[in-house]
Amino acid sequence: MQQYVAEVQAIRAVPDILITLSELTGLRFICVAHVTETSWTACAVFDQLGFGMKPGDPLDVSTTLCEDVRNTGLAIVIDNVDESPTYREHPTLLMHGFKCYFSLPLIRPCGTYFGTLCGVDVHPTSLSNPTTVRTMRLFAELISKQLPCASED
Predict the structure, then answer these.
(1) Distance CA 120, CA 102 (A)
(2) Per-position pLDDT tens, the chain of length 153
(3) Rg of the Cα trace of the chain?
(4) Which residues contact 104 (CB under 8 A, 6 or more apart)?
(5) Third-level CATH fold of 2-146
(6) For 86-110, b where at least 16 C-beta lie within 10 A, e where not — what string?
């Protein structure tokens, strides 16, 4: 997994992207994660929530919504978990007390799935407005285009 952390850490814009997304959205936890069928690994982290997560740290992929993004290839953007008919009872969000969430797929230039650009907070916030969504997508694309192609993820 250290290979994937190193790939993301080599992208000089990533720390600025994470900070800018935090400032834009108000979310206090933003990260880039490498996601497979069996693993979730933090590759870059901006953590003002005090999770204590750092690059290289794993999570059980079954306890993440990033798994859903990997399976569908579609972004998830939730302004307020309590008002979401789809996610208000999702065990992951309830377990951590998250009230807002986003996760966008990161696709290598050769077309293979790498992981997600994601963010969470314990307070609801407006993430789904068009300007914010476009900005998040642009940052996900910027990261994606700089990831090296790998033979296997």
Answers:
(1) 7
(2) 789 999 999 999 999 999 999 999 999 999 999 999 899 999 999 999 998 899 999 988 888 888 889 889 999 999 999 999 999 998 888 888 999 999 999 999 999 999 999 999 999 999 999 999 999 999 999 999 999 986 555
(3) 14
(4) 69, 75, 116, 117, 118, 136, 137, 140
(5) Beta-Lactamase (3.30.450)
(6) ebeebebbeeeebbbbbbbbbbbee
Q: Would you list the domain boundaries of the chain?
A: 2-146
- The answer to whether the beta carbons of residues 106 and 32 sit under 8 Å apart is yes
3-state secondary structure of 69: helix
pTM here is 0.93
- d(C-alpha 25, C-alpha 100), whole Å: 10
